[in-house]
Amino acid sequence: MIEVHELHRHFGGFRAVDGASLKIAPGSITGLIGPNGAGKSTLFNVIAGVLPPTSGRVVMDGEDITGLPPHELFHKGLLRTFQIAHEFGSMTCRENLMMVPAGQSGEQLWNTWFGRKRIADEERALRAKADEVLEFLTISHIADLRAGEVSGGQKKLLELGRTMMVDAKIVFLDEVGAGVNRTLLYTIADAIKQLNEERGYTFVVIEHDMEFIGRICDPVICMAEGKVLAEGTLDEIKANEQVIEAYLGT
Ligand code: ADP
Ligand code: MG
């Protein structure tokens, strides 16, 4: 579904991503692990159009998508989740979901879209969809709370929920489990698994928690120093000498 060829992203002389190549199979939940500073987030940002690459190519379903801006990738069904921005903290959780189809796709679309449809109908449909998403994620009870006031874990579920407001094909999740308690971590894992199975989403998930990875991810890719070190099942990765040296052993 996604092929990354010899991708580089340098910052000055520093090679954050240093010739990474990998393939993401359609329908998979691929785990991306590696030590801090390995270049995982930078790789995500380049794939998702947030940062231009220094060199290399990204191909999605046979089409070269290298350097396309996030809103164009969004229309192709490629999403990278972001933390709920500070300025949206005063909006309710439901409102945060309702603004996704507009917010991530750009103001222009928002305007033309509302220009040709009846606002009230659209709002009702969006609201119903948002409520469906909240229910799926078992957080209906926070619908009317301000997004800035819910727990860290609930925010993470909300971030995942944002991907469900549109027809995503592939979703990149960067440490969705960070700072989340174990119960909520597994709720998030199960929601990802269910979205994968029922809606056919492909996921690429950066995560440090090996139980989380083991629960849902196959295959697992390990990066270090901007390069792909190894790929395989979690057991294979855990047994890989280079991975142990670069990451698991430390
Ligand atoms: P990871 O997500 O694997 O922890 P990152 O992709 O965030 O790693 O970072 C990889 C390296 O690139 C780090 O050493 C980081 O300091 C550096 N880096 C990331 N973004 C920038 C930037 N905008 N400018 C300069 N250096 C950066
Ligand atoms: Mg990171």
From TrEMBL:
<dbReference type="GO" id="GO:0005524">
    <property type="term" value="F:ATP binding"/>
</dbReference>
<feature type="domain" description="ABC transporter">
    <location>
        <begin position="2"/>
        <end position="250"/>
    </location>
</feature>
<dbReference type="InterPro" id="IPR032823">
    <property type="entry name" value="BCA_ABC_TP_C"/>
</dbReference>
<keyword id="KW-0067">ATP-binding</keyword>
<dbReference type="Pfam" id="PF12399">
    <property type="entry name" value="BCA_ABC_TP_C"/>
</dbReference>
<dbReference type="InterPro" id="IPR003593">
    <property type="entry name" value="AAA+_ATPase"/>
</dbReference>
<dbReference type="InterPro" id="IPR003439">
    <property type="entry name" value="ABC_transporter-like_ATP-bd"/>
</dbReference>
<dbReference type="InterPro" id="IPR051120">
    <property type="entry name" value="ABC_AA/LPS_Transport"/>
</dbReference>
<dbReference type="GO" id="GO:0005886">
    <property type="term" value="C:plasma membrane"/>
</dbReference>
<dbReference type="Pfam" id="PF00005">
    <property type="entry name" value="ABC_tran"/>
</dbReference>
<keyword id="KW-0813">Transport</keyword>
<dbReference type="InterPro" id="IPR027417">
    <property type="entry name" value="P-loop_NTPase"/>
</dbReference>
<protein>
    <submittedName>
        <fullName>ABC transporter ATP-binding protein</fullName>
    </submittedName>
</protein>
<keyword id="KW-0547">Nucleotide-binding</keyword>
<dbReference type="GO" id="GO:0016887">
    <property type="term" value="F:ATP hydrolysis activity"/>
</dbReference>
<dbReference type="InterPro" id="IPR017871">
    <property type="entry name" value="ABC_transporter-like_CS"/>
</dbReference>
